[in-house]
Amino acid sequence: MATLRLEIITAERKMFDEQINMVVAPGSEGVMGILPHHTPLLTALTYGELQIKKEGEDDQFVAIGGGFMEVQPDHVVVLADAAEYAEEIDVARAEEARRRAEESLAKAREEGIDFARAEAALRRSAIRIKVAERRRRRERADQRSRPSSS
Ligand code: ATP
Q1: What is the whole-number distance in angstroms between the Cα of residue 147 and the centre of ligand 1?
Q2: Whose CA is nearest to atom 31 of ligand 1?
């Protein structure tokens, strides 16, 4: 199976650099699936979930907080404003961020709340909760498929 090199870089770290089979990324104009030998392109990314497919492994999910993606036929570079693996996400923090954003949006009409900012915060928190939830679901499924020790 053909592979391409995927790098995911944030201001803080290079979080991923491996040969993979496919990446599905949250492009600003829609979700994009990138396979090896793709036409070169440069695109903005929005808040969303990035999915990494690698033969013989479970798909990995990363919450992306916007950025850019450069595609070359055998190499994809994601420069993310923020990025977390499912297992790194602090769900309580994301739920608190969602609560704050919802509160701001509810008050937006009466007070001088920055609507776009509150909406962006709501989307970021919702993506984090969704990506973290995927991991929890997988863990539950793994537990069910494992033979009981008793
Ligand atoms: P908060 O209001 O909770 O700070 P935010 O959406 O404003 O959230 P960002 O500006 O997107 O946060 O990210 C700031 C940094 O904090 C980034 O490094 C990001 O990876 C990290 N981060 C934000 N929320 C979480 C979370 N729930 N779990 C783990 N890391 C997080």
Answers
A1: 37
A2: 89
